[in-house]
Amino acid sequence: QLQLQESGPGLVKPSETLSLTCTVSGGSISSSSYYWGWIRQPPGKGLEWIGSIYYSGSTYYNPSLKSRVTISVDTSKNQFSLKLSSVTAADTAVYYCARLLKTAIIFDYWGQGTLVTVSS
Amino acid sequence: QSALTQPASVSGSPGQSITISCTGTSSDVGGYNYVSWYQQHPGKAPKLMIYDVSNRPSGVSNRFSGSKSGNTASLTISGLQAEDEADYYCSSYTSSSIPGVVFGGGTKLTVL
Asked: For a 10 Å CB count at each end of chain A, is N or C smaller?
């Protein structure tokens, strides 16, 4: 059974960089059938797609966040990572990592999510 | 890219049917059959309920169905049950600016 687990600091100071890692177990991140993505959800609000990455390193970012986002992949560790720079309180959210099926553009497996709070 | 438009809330009594709409543009919902629906209970990760407009993943009840007309997709839940009370989000592939994914704003379903 595929499992995804987010990890990283739960508290980040304003203007600093948020860094999260998603570890994939029970399957290979190098599968040609999938992208791997990050989605966030501010408290009490809706879902927002941040971006996705292919095992080869090709990336697709939400235009509204593109200038601050970097997603990378480490196939040797079966992990992919998110960096979001110059954070503000508006970036406070539950961050999810998920598997994106290429042929249907669906997130079929999700991590449990991790709350990141931006505060001094 | 703008979020897809969903009603903020819908409600229904047990046994009834409800429909949640999801309106986009020709760059997303109207242009592709990559529309999906997710159910989210409080404190939980979203769960895929419908993909490719009207297909159900294995294990999802046949009380859930999806459809699309033009730029608007719909999720219908028949035979409402208390456990259906949750937030529902539509999602679509979008070709606007950069190929990617766009979500709807979410709809809170209350089972009366």
From this structure: N
Q: Are B90 and B36 in contact (CB under 8 A)?
A: yes
Report helix, strand or coil for A67: helix
CA distance B73 to B36: 9
The label of the residue with tokens 């033009």 reads B70
pLDDT at residue B46, rounded to an integer: 97
Q: Which residue of A has its CA nearest to B96?
A: A63
Please work out, in degrees rounded to the nearest 5, the angle formed at the alpha carbon of residue B51 by the alpha carbons of A2 and B20. 125
- DSSP β-bridge partners for residue B23: B5, B72
Contacts of B3 in chain A (CB under 8 A): 46, 48
Q: Do B45 and A110 touch (CB under 8 A)?
A: yes
Cα A114 to chain center, whole Å? 10
pLDDT tens for B86-104 read: 999 999 999 876 778 999 9
Question: Measured between CB atoms, which of B89, B92, B99 is closest to A47?
Answer: B89
User: Contact B23/B70 with Cβ under 8 angstroms?
Assistant: no
